[in-house]
Design a protein that fits this description.
six-stranded mixed β-sheet, 441 residues, alpha/beta, globular
Amino acid sequence: MDVVVIETRPLGDRSYVVHDGEVALVIDPQRDTDRVEAAAAEAGVRITHVAETHLHNDYLTGGLILARAHGAEYLVSAQDDVGFEHTPIADGGTVQVGRLTVKAVATPGHTHHHLSYVVSDGEQQAVFSGGSLLYGSVGRTDLVSGEDTEVLTRAQYSSVRRLAAEAKPDAALYPTHGFGSFCSSGPASSVHASTIAEQQEANHALTDADEDHFVQELINNLTAYPSYYAHMAPANRQGPGPADLTVPESVDPAELSRRLADGEWVVDLRHRVAFASSHLRGSVSFEYGRGSSFTAYLGWVLPWNQQLTLVGSEEDVEKAIRDLSRIGIDSPGAALGTDPSALAPGTAVVHYARVDWAEMLHGRSAGDVVLDVRRTEEYDAGHLSGAVNIPLHELLARMAEIPAGTVWVHCESGYRSGVAASLLQRAGRDVVHVDAKYRRS
């Protein structure tokens, strides 16, 4: 048995191609299935089965697309009500994938009908746990509804114990979430691989002998998650179609100026430093790059289902289109180039100040506002005296709450405050971007 890991770092998830050298099972593929196709081709295997651990909340699945393309069996929980042809599988059900035996194990908690899969080649075992048992944590239990959270948390506690008992201690563990995904119930371990035995020693879901304590602690530690999640499970229940990853023709200067003048969302992908120094009036900054959480925050902050125009280099625009397709943001427009004045000569090029902490602490005037756009739990753990806290994902709806005066905006690292500064300036506020790591005293 070989396992090929396909990382989706912008969303903190993994998909898997599990094969015996000839045929393969794909688990939890994302919508841009060309990455799976490439992995299968490199391994020289045929895709005969595709399996979902659950109806995903943080991305659109590529499972249906992949199954149809290969004539593969599409394994989905028999209890999930879905609108497409599939092979229902229930707790204890097994399928043969070449020389591999795949057993479904019901592991409710992250969702009501969540399944994990124990795969064996007769010697090795591998456990594909989706949003159940993660490295150092478990999948969050509040995504279905607030009313179901406690029931699902108790189910999660039982599920991970059952899953650990079903597998050999040396079985390799392969979760889908937990690598930065908001689907994790808490900070997962930074390890890149683990086994069932290692999790039995270190994972709080398996070491906490008091179920009530585990349940209360997990629920108390649940934090905000992206608003676009509300659109993912319904789309996955119907079966998403393929993504169009082509880069559109660059809009002409007059059209880009019109979109800005009409208040459309024009998203500048350049680094926040470049944006602060020079950008088109009315555009907003969502810096594209590794580790930037671009996809999650754009889908969380901007209004859903409104036309976007991406501004940046062709390479960044191409990558951003792929990333956004994973959460159902399709067919954005594009303005290709990194010189704002050349992209829309008829629109003013503006800037705002960008400072470090020393300049912020000593450069403010009486009546200026300090705006902290970190999440509430971050603010509660420590903040500047007098700072106003409006989390970035709530900023558009709460602009009227910000007191009058120049706004000095900060976050933990500078990324979220860069987005916030652009939104504030677009709304007509005088803004200073504090672009520095927050240091707790």
